[in-house]
Design a protein that fits this description.
There is one protein chain. The chain has about 180 residues and is mostly helical. The mean pLDDT is about 85. It contains eight helices and no strands. Helix 2 runs antiparallel to helix 3 and helix 3 packs antiparallel against helix 6.
């Protein structure tokens, strides 16, 4: 029987997508390519965050000692990142503020990833049966397919996880060609 990657392997693979930041930084300011790359980065970060919020953090609350506090810290990280993504989306790619926001975003994302991988994932692997981790991996993969693709920092998490938000985002992306 072939096993799918567990939640930790799935999310760690997402974390390795950090070359997206380098590609944006290497692209000329003010170009359509820079906006396209920033949109692709936003789509992936939002999908990843929503999947974590829907499946990983409830597991952290359930299986880890002080899980509520840990999950709340991770959610606060997501809130900061989502706010930065919203600001980045509203900023002209030729503006110096875009570059500053990108650097701030990269710093926040990399700190969050390091903390998850060095602490949270280690503790989760120790606390959970492999079957639980594999099941969560499948749920995360499915959640990323239906998740919103745009930052919605003012929307409560329970509303953001509703299927309609992701559907509307994907429809807007299709009509505008965003993320292609």
């Amino acid at each position: 029987m072939v096993h799918s990657p567990d939640v930790i392997a799935e999310l760690t693979a997402d974390h390795r997508e950090d070359e997206r930041f380098d590609r944006i930084e290497d692209t000329m300011p003010g170009t359509a390519e820079r906006r396209q790359l920033a949109d692709q980065l936003t789509i992936e970060l939002v999908r990843h965050a929503v999947a974590e919020e829907e499946h990983l953090y409830p597991a952290v609350r359930e299986y880890l000692e002080n899980g509520d506090a840990l999950a709340d810290e991770e959610l606060a990280d997501h809130g900061r990142v989502e706010g930065l993504l919203k600001d980045l989306e509203a900023t002209d790619v030729g503006d110096l503020a875009f570059t500053r926001l990108l650097v701030h975003l990269k710093t926040e994302v990399f700190a969050h990833v390091k903390d998850e991988e060095d602490n949270l994932f280690v503790r989760l692997r120790e606390a959970c049966h492999p079957f639980v981790l594999e099941s969560l991996g499948e749920k995360v993969r499915h959640a990323k397919k239906t998740a919103p693709t745009r930052p919605h920092p003012a929307v409560p998490a329970n509303k953001l996880l509703a299927p309609g938000v992701g559907l509307v985002d994907r429809a807007r992306d299709f009509v505008t060609g965003r993320g292609k």
